[in-house]
Design brief:
The protein is mainly beta. It has 4 helices and 38 strands.
Length: about 550
């Protein structure tokens, strides 16, 4: 009797996640502020919350309620999910369940890798979070496994290795968050800098069975192979390392694909389909319904993996379902969600490699800078390889009809020399060393901006300069508050209408994380991960980051 009473008390003391996260729960995630079930705070990935408890009049009074060490010195880029008072967070080598009121761990599961699994991870040994479905926590591991854990205990339910030719020896790595759509866990892959073909693939969410694979680069003889010279598509790149979005009514998953490989364009000729594209896929089968290519024959590593955002916008006088992507190449694209037709494409930062995008053909209007670069001449290009934005996700407010984007303001000198005659092989680096690049600045003290832009014109309503580019994602609420973080570690709340700073708190490390907000027991909370890392922090030489310490931690804020 005493043992039974103790067990009951323990169950009352610690929250336990409910088993049900049904397809309907996922579909309605954006309407249920008590939970955060889907990467992007809803299938449409708007990162918008209807919560208003924290508003412009009181945002200056929010305080940290708790912090939790994640015991990791790598970059902390995760997107926390929340169900019934339990938060699920990740690093590259662990998954944890956390009590949202106290910050105490409910359970923690470690993930071990062979040492060689970390040697071919290009741009940061990270993980960006988990998916939830029917009591299971689903995530990817760097050594190319997709696994499901029991949400109550953290125990493994199933584990599936991505089928051949996927291996760490061939340069593949899995760092992103699965997207559960129509009963399928859709996942992406990283590693375009290691001479392999990227893909998107689907797994049965109940059993882990591998269902399909959408190759982002065609094999010789397949449709699209004529856009690659010779057999260059066999090592063609096209990673998919940031999670997509989903529209249940159209039953389409929208996913961004990465740059072609090698970086040096003189080793390959042609558009290089389906790299640097937004692709629309049926989640049950992997069938590609449409695609739109943003940077054909890309010489600059303008990785097009940014999460597409779905919204209803007025187009030609009528509400239209669109897919929006703020692309690394500097253009903000608005596409018809049903067929991929280009609606608008405008620069949202400094761009000099193209004079715009042809609205009829959808192709960039390449200029002399681009042509000189393709010919091997040394040129100054804007944006740099960093892009006007990188992997971080933007937020969209249907109240203000504005997108909130963290951008970089960095150019580069660029020179593609004579390409090596030795053919590339899977697992062999095909990025650095194939071109020469050096960063250039208009003002070294302004390396980025947080901007609020109109989706259809990309014209800014406001922009806030930053000494270093912000690598964190943004979040916007119905009280017109934008939450984000800086690479020097400040967690910020800003007025969504003006950009005015309302609140700032210094976390122990740089913030690369993705803020989420939720309500529990009548109180609104905002959570973000802190922990510097990633390719910019490691390789840019940014003097503002020299004294920013490493160390991942999880922070939750609320009103007193």
């Amino acid at each position: 009797m005493i043992a039974r009473s103790l067990a009951a008390l323990l169950c009352m003391a610690l929250p336990v996640s409910a088993v049900a996260q049904t397809a309907e729960d996922l579909k309605n995630d954006h309407k249920t502020p008590g939970d955060v079930l889907v990467y992007g705070m809803g299938y449409w990935a708007q990162r918008y919350s209807p919560l208003t408890q924290i508003n412009k009049s009181n945002a200056s009074r929010i305080v940290p309620k708790w912090a939790l060490s994640l015991t990791d010195n790598r970059g902390s880029e995760g997107f926390p999910v929340v169900k019934d008072g339990v938060m699920y967070v990740t690093t590259h080598n662990m998954t944890a369940a956390v009590d949202v009121l106290t910050g105490k761990q409910v359970w923690r599961t470690a993930h071990e890798y062979p040492p060689e699994a970390l040697r071919t991870v290009c741009c940061g040994i990270v993980n960006r979070g988990v998916a939830m479905y029917e009591g299971k926590i689903i995530r990817q591991l760097i050594d190319n496994h997709t696994i499901a854990l029991d949400a109550k205990t953290g125990k493994e339910v199933w584990r599936t290795k991505s089928p051949a030719p996927v291996s760490t020896e061939n340069g593949y790595a899995m760092t992103s968050t699965p997207l559960v759509a129509n009963g399928v866990a859709v996942v992406g892959i990283a590693g375009a800098e290691f001479s392999h073909r990227g893909f998107i693939e689907g797994y049965d969410v109940q059993t882990g069975k591998h269902l399909w694979r959408h190759w982002n680069v065609p094999a010789p003889g397949e449709k699209g192979a004529d856009t690659w010279a010779g057999e260059t598509s066999t090592t063609g790149g096209g990673s998919s390392w940031v999670t997509g979005s989903y529209d249940p009514d159209l039953d389409l998953v929208f996913w961004g694909t990465g740059n072609p490989s090698p970086w040096n364009p003189r080793t390959r000729k042609g558009d290089a389909l389906w790299t640097n594209s937004v692709v629309a896929i049926r989640p049950k089968t992997g069938e590609r319904v449409w695609f739109y290519q943003t940077s054909p024959e890309d010489p600059f590593d303008y990785d097009g993996v940014q999460q597409p955002v779905i919204a209803m916008l007025p187009v030609g006088g009528k509400p239209t379902k669109v897919v929006m992507q703020a692309n690394r190449n500097g253009f903000l694209y608005v596409l018809n969600a049903a067929d991929g037709k280009l609606i608008a494409a405008n620069a949202f930062g400094k761009v000099n490699w193209a004079d715009g995008v042809d609205i009829k053909t959808g192709r960039p209007r390449h200029n002399q800078v681009y042509r000189d670069a393709m010919a091997g001449k040394k040129v100054e290009v804007w944006p740099s390889v960093t892009g006007v934005t990188n992997w971080q996700s933007m937020a969209y407010s249907p109240r203000t009809n504005l997108l909130y984007i963290n951008t970089a303001h960095i150019g580069m000198t660029y020179e593609a020399g004579e390409p090596p005659k030795v053919p590339y092989k899977p697992g062999q680096p095909s990025g650095s060393g194939t071109v020469k690049r050096t960063a250039v600045f208009e003002d070294p003290n302004v390396r980025g901006y947080l901007v609020a832009v109109d989706p259809l014109t990309a014209k800014p309503k406001w922009r806030v300069p930053t000494k270093s580019p912000n690598w964190a994602s943004t979040l916007v609420t119905a009280s017109d508050i934008v939450f984000t973080g800086t690479m020097t570690g400040e967690f910020e709340a800003r007025d969504a209408n003006t950009g005015k700073l309302l609140y700032s708190f210094q976390t122990p490390s740089g913030i690369l994380g993705q803020p989420v907000t939720f309500q529990h027991k009548g109180k609104q909370y905002v959570t973000i991960q802190s922990g510097i890392g990633g390719v910019y922090a490691l390789r840019s030489g940014d003097p503002n980051l020299v004294n920013v310490p490493t160390g991942a931690s999880l922070w939750t804020f609320a009103l007193p």
